[in-house]
Amino acid sequence: MTSAVLEVSDLACRRGGRQVFDNLSFSLAEGELLALKGRNGSGKTTLLRALALLVPATVGAIRWRGADVGDDREGWRRRLAWLGHQDGLKGDLTVAENVAVAERLRGRNPRQAHVHGALAAFDLAALADRAVRTLSAGQRRRAALARVVASEAGLWLLDEPLNALDLPAQEALHDALARHLAAGGLAIAATHATLDIAGARTLELGR
């Protein structure tokens, strides 16, 4: 039996005085992807933000390899990569500089070959020295995803990662996810689309 790496137990969250979800429990082992489904307002983004400790859960526990993530909040944040609705990029920095930030946030000096590899995964090599503010929405989304790849985080939290991506970029995301999972990483993605990843599990919210 495969042991769980991430365990979420009896989690509940309220937003704006409304109970978004409660009694939510699931676990993920190495190499697993969980797709969050549900209508707008069902709690997909709230769950991702609660897992990232960006919003407080009212009750419940989040454990990584048996340890409560709230006991070492900074250590937990270094274990995960976050992609929200907003790309979270600095407009005056270049694409390469934005991707390098992912390594700095994890306490490492950026490695040029590593940054270039993440850029190449999303066909961004030709745009490496362009300021992000000059990019299209799809190009910015690809840069944000390259930063996720560059982080080498164990857990990816992705909120509608396919937004603004054309078909080649969607295929690049699928490839990056497959490599991440094959290396033992975990991913949780809120999406209305289908992530064509073998073995992906689904959690339906708001039923």
Output the keywords.
alpha/beta; four-stranded antiparallel β-sheet; five-stranded parallel β-sheet; Rossmann fold
Gyration radius (Cα, Å) is 17 Å
Strand content: 25-35%
Order of SSEs: EEEHEEHEHHHEHEE
The top level CATH class name of the domain at 6-88 and 151-204: Alpha Beta
Q: Helical amount among residues, as a percent range?
A: 25-40%
Looking at the structure, the CATH topology of the domain at 6-88 and 151-204 is Rossmann fold
Flag low-confidence runs.
Answer: none
Taking the alpha carbons of the first and last residues, their distance comes to 30 Å
- Major sheet strand order: 6-7-8-3-9
Biggest pleated-sheet summary: 5 strands, parallel
Structural class: alpha/beta
Q: What is the CATH superfamily classification of the domain at 6-88 and 151-204?
A: P-loop containing nucleotide triphosphate hydrolases
Supply the number of helical segments.
6
Q: What is the residue-mean pLDDT, rounded to a whole number?
A: 93
Secondary-structure arrangement, i.e. CATH architecture of the domain at 6-88 and 151-204: 3-Layer(aba) Sandwich
Shape: globular
Number of strands: 9
